[in-house]
Amino acid sequence: MAKILVINGPNLNLLGSREPQQYGHRTLQEIMEDLERFAGACGHELTHTQNNSEGGLVDTVHRAASEGIDYIILNPAGYTHTSIVLRDAMIAVGIPFVEVHLSLVHAREPFRQKSYFSDVAIGVITGFQGEGYMLALQAIVNRIEP
């Protein structure tokens, strides 16, 4: 059994109402409930968190190491393009992670096309709205159980 943590960055608590054409109509809670069911059906433990503050996200990453988390699904949201400290935390703990973005960041504004995480992630999923989380989880399960 693997322990998987989903970390959600700023403004993702507004999913379902925030720019649904960009991010979809499902709430973060609905998406996370689907992930918990799928992970459980595969024999794995999945927990999730959302934080609007950079320091809170860094603290979550630090705790993940001491809690024995095996994999992380990370949606750094707006911190994707700005947070060197969150990147450093991800590198420091050494937990393999998949970077997820709900919108197709490469088709958006130029500043959104740069990620501080993609080069250190085991994979990047972008543009599938809430389904991207499930794709990331499926990829992790496939790594665990080839």
Automatic annotation (TrEMBL):
EC code: 4.2.1.10
Active site, per annotation: 23 (proton acceptor), 101 (proton donor)
Pathway recorded for this protein: Metabolic intermediate biosynthesis; chorismate biosynthesis; chorismate from D-erythrose 4-phosphate and phosphoenolpyruvate: step 3/7
GO molecular-function term, one example from the UniProt record: 3-dehydroquinate dehydratase activity
GO terms, biological process: amino acid biosynthetic process; aromatic amino acid family biosynthetic process; chorismate biosynthetic process; quinate catabolic process
Broadest EC class assigned to this enzyme: lyase
UniProt-annotated binding residues for substrate: 75, 81, 88, 102-103, 112
Annotated positions for site Transition state stabilizer: 18
Keywords: Amino-acid biosynthesis, Aromatic amino acid biosynthesis, Lyase
Pfam family membership, one: DHquinase_II
InterPro entries in the cross-refs: DHquinase_II, DHquinase_II_CS, DHquinase_II_sf
Catalytic activity: 3-dehydroquinate = 3-dehydroshikimate + H2O
Oligomer and partners: Homododecamer.
Function noted in UniProt: Catalyzes a trans-dehydration via an enolate intermediate.
NCBIfam families in alphabetical order: aroQ (TIGR01088), PRK05395.1-1 (NF003804), PRK05395.1-2 (NF003805), PRK05395.1-3 (NF003806), PRK05395.1-4 (NF003807)
HAMAP family xrefs: AroQ
Family: Belongs to the type-II 3-dehydroquinase family.
Protein name (Swiss-Prot/TrEMBL): 3-dehydroquinate dehydratase
Protein's organism: Elongatibacter sediminis
Source lineage: Bacteria, Pseudomonadati, Pseudomonadota, Gammaproteobacteria, Chromatiales
Gene: aroQ
